[in-house]
Design goal:
By secondary structure, the chain is α+β, with helices and mostly antiparallel strands. It folds into two domains: about 60 residues, no CATH class; about 120 residues, Immunoglobulin-like (Sandwich), CATH 2.60.40. The protein has three helices and nine strands, in the order αααβββββββββ. The strands form two sheets. It has a six-stranded antiparallel sheet, with no helix packed on it. Strands 2-5-8 form a three-stranded antiparallel sheet, with no helix packed on it.
Length: about 190
C-alpha cells in the first residue's frame, strides 16, 4: 500500500467520521527536521527536512481534501453512514464513509480496492445513496482526490420513490467509481 493511499484513507475516514481537523505528517515535518541530518532515535524513515517533506504528494492531496471540505462548512458536517449502502462498520472499515449537512451536502468517500486482500471483495459494484429528501434537488460529481479534478458531473440526481439513488457499475459490473482507486462522491443541493 502506498504512503499517499494510506494518508488519503486516514484523512477521509477521519474527516467523515466526525474529526474536527487533521494534521499531515511525514518525517521531516513531524520531527521539525531542519537543514541538518536527522540523528534522533533508531526508527528513522528518511533524511528529509521539513521544507521538502511538506511538499510530498500526500501533503498536496490532503490539501485538496481540505479545500473541498472548506467549500461546504465542514465543521457542520454530521456523520451519516446510513446515507450510503454499503457503508463501513466495525468489522469492515474498507467500505464507504459518509457525512453531510441534511438538505445541503452529502460527501461519500470510497476507499481504494488496493486496501483489500482480495479484489473480488470490492464492495462498490452497486451503491445506494439513501434517505434523499424528496423536497431537495441534488447535483453530483466525483472528486478526484489525487489531482482535485471533478469528473462525471451529474446535473440532476434522480432518486426512486424510496429516496434511493442507485449507482450501478460503469463500463461493466466492476465499480461504481471512475476507477478502482479511492474517490469522493459529492451531492450538492441545487
Amino acid at each position: 500500500m502506498g504512503v499517499t493511499l494510506t494518508q488519503r484513507f486516514l484523512y477521509w475516514t477521519s474527516m467523515l467520521s466526525g474529526c474536527a481537523g487533521y494534521t499531515y505528517g511525514a518525517q521531516g515535518v513531524w520531527n521539525a527536521n531542519g537543514d541538518i541530518e536527522f540523528k534522533g532515535g533508531s526508527a528513522n524513515w528518511g533524511d528529509y527536512i521539513w521544507k521538502d517533506a511538506m511538499n510530498f504528494p500526500g501533503s498536496y492531496q490532503l490539501g485538496l481534501g481540505k479545500k473541498l471540505l472548506e467549500k461546504y462548512d465542514y465543521l457542520k458536517l454530521e456523520v451519516h453512514p446510513e446515507w450510503v449502502e454499503p457503508h463501513w462498520n466495525n468489522s469492515n472499515r474498507i467500505s464507504p464513509y459518509c457525512a453531510g449537512i441534511p438538505g445541503k451536502i452529502r460527501i461519500i468517500y470510497f476507499p481504494s480496492c488496493h486496501l483489500l486482500n482480495n479484489i473480488s471483495d470490492f464492495p462498490f459494484k452497486k451503491v445506494k445513496v439513501l434517505n434523499i429528501e424528496k423536497s431537495i434537488n441534488y447535483k453530483a460529481f466525483y472528486f478526484n482526490i489525487r489531482n482535485g479534478e471533478k469528473v462525471w458531473e451529474i446535473d440532476t440526481v434522480s432518486p426512486n420513490d424510496k429516496g434511493e439513488w442507485i449507482i450501478e457499475g460503469r463500463d461493466g459490473p466492476i465499480s461504481t467509481n471512475p476507477s478502482l482507486e479511492d474517490w469522493v462522491l459529492v451531492l450538492e443541493s441545487k
